[in-house]
Write a structure and sequence with these properties.
Low-confidence stretches: 1-23, 270-274
Strand content: under 5%
Distance between the termini: 77 Å
Order of helices and strands: HHHHHHHHHHHH
Radius of gyration: 29 Å
Number of helices: 12
Mean pLDDT: 78
Structural class: mainly alpha
Shape: globular
Length: 332
Amino acid sequence: MSARGPRLFELDSDARIDPGAAPQPPEDAAPPPEGRAMQAAVRAGRAQLGLWARLGWGALAALLTLAASVAVWDFVTGLLARVPALGYLAVALAGVVLLVTLLGVMREWAGFRRLRRIDRLRRQVTAARISDNRPEAAHVVDELDALYAARPEMRWPRSRLAETAPDQLDAGALIDLTETTLMPPLDARATREIEAAARQVALLTAIVPLALVDVLVALLTNLRMIRRIAEIYGGRTGSLGNLRLMRGVIAHLVATGAVAVGEDMLGSVASGSMLSKLSRRFGEGVVNGALTARLGIAAMDICRPVPFHAAPRPRTGTLMSRALSGLFDRPA
């Protein structure tokens, strides 16, 4: 009998073990969630037409408007000649359509004007803080107070600011006091809007199996969220103004690099690998919700008349934790 026992393990003589090598994931491991619905929505919001495309669509819109106007004119004049009573009715209806169109144009113009006012105030606040000019800072504070003068919920913060502002002799301290006094109630409302939108996007993109539908849901939800945030801070917009605002928010998001999906996004809520193992769709929904929260924070940066300085900027992880806790909580 041989002294050697049977060999239980056979090692390949060509195999080499590198102790410093990173462990390789199994071949059938699913890739981490990417938030494809929100990524597609962001790309749709960033899409721009070229010069010739804008000229072509503008010319087509002008041609259709001219053709419709001539057709209405011919219809009304012909009806006046044949049946005067019906002709006068057509004139009245055309007048109503024209009035509604003018009101819509004025509404859009007012929305753009409010957005420009918020932009101007934010630039003035930044300039006053940099120059440390107390009279300039006081002037900006007066304009901020006038911005919220008609808001009943801002009555107490405005009165508190009026009492404490004269004690601040430094421009930076005055602006910080204004931020910590006027902005917190508005910030709280804005963060609630972000949490609600993130929760809705996370839920709907997790349960809707159709790719184009969840992209549309994410896009519409984010448009509504951005519009609500603008209204909260005093920059209520029309339809065109809301589209312009969303483009600005997405540009800000891209410039700060917050569009990229990283491990910190999933790690702030739960482990990305655990989400993938539990449910691929749920993981996608969470990442879509986190991207919505990031978009909402960028909207706060754009719409807030006082840039974040003394007050802390909301964090994506905190907003998503509250949004998901609201998703799973049940009333008692």
